[in-house]
Amino acid sequence: MRLAARFAVIYLMLASAALAEVGGYVTEIEKWRENFDADVRTGGWLALVGRSKIDQGSWTLGSDPGSAVVLPSKAPARIGVLSRRGRVFRFEPAKGVETTIGGKAVSGSVELHTEHGSDRLCIGDLSIAVRAVGDDYYALVSDAKNPAIGKFKGTTWFPIVPTYHVPARFVPYRRPRTVHVPLTHVDSRESMRSTGDIVFRLAGKTYRLKTFTDEDELFVMFQDATNGKRSYGGGRFVYAPKPEHGVTVLDFNKAFNPYCSLNAYVMCPIPPPENRLPVQVAAGETFFAP
């Protein structure tokens, strides 16, 4: 075989391998996006229909407009009283109203636990959970049959561009930091743990973003030049794998809008000022205002 022909064969082999690698990556992102939409439908983000800050004292619950925590019209006029003493919460059902916690009927005054995934007070399609947000507590009301769930048609995305899958160097702080992050729609702040920044190159320039720890991953909130035009004005989120030997990967094709962009009752952290990129990141989720 002539030398030129050999080079041609090698080139074709390398090109085919590169195309196969890109094709595999695109398939992976498409699958990830399918799973993301499934989580939006089933994760409770679209089911939330009410949010009330609960201070010390007693709070009546019900659809009666005079209730301290007003529930949707499908709820009884009054379902009971929620009381707070310090960090302890109790619920006393109204006479003749059937409520359950964990499938068990509530017959008298009971304590409501506030840990993530703990007690939910249920009545028909509605459920109420009391959860801590920073130093504050909120009663979060969900409707399992909220019409918004059925109306969700899926997320819209920028085209998948492999060059937005970028390696990043993790730069740890000398000591972990606790950051009090402001939230959308409320005055409360969430305490989030940050252990370092990630440094990466995009469009020929080097950028740095603050990260937050979320179990075994790095959670990154950022804003860029597409915000308010082609992407959500409040910025977007993306996760990066736990660094190994100081290196991780930042994949902007998996960047997504905060869930408060779907539902105003959801409270979302706001990207820190230092995480504003002066470049357009035309990757990940887009946004079209309703």
Outline the fold blueprint.
Elements: H1 3-42, E1 48-53, E2 57-62, E3 69-70, E4 80-85, E5 88-93, E6 100-101, E7 104-105, E8 110-112, E9 121-123, E10 126-133, E11 136-143, H2 147-151, E12 165-182, E13 189-202, E14 205-210, E15 212-214, E16 217-222, E17 236-241, E18 247-251
Parallel strand pairs: 2-3
Antiparallel strand pairs: 1-11, 2-4, 4-5, 5-8, 6-7, 6-9, 9-10, 10-11, 12-13, 12-18, 13-14, 15-16, 16-17
Radius of gyration, in Å, reads: 24 Å
How many separate domains?
2
Order of SSEs: HEEEEEEEEEEEHEEEEEEE
Structural class: alpha+beta
Question: Which overall shape is indicated by the principal axes computed on the Cα atoms?
Answer: elongated
Number of helices: 2
- First-to-last CA distance: 63 Å
Strand content: 35-45%
- Poorly predicted regions are 3-20
What oligomeric arrangement do these chains adopt?
Answer: single chain
Count of strand segments: 18
Largest sheet: 6 strands, antiparallel
Helix content: 10-25%
Order of strands, main sheet, comes to 1-11-10-9-6-7
Query: What do the pLDDT scores average to?
Result: 90
Notable features of this structure?
single chain, 290 residues, alpha+beta, Tumour Suppressor Smad4, five-stranded mixed β-sheet, 2 helices, 18 strands, 16% helix, disordered N terminus
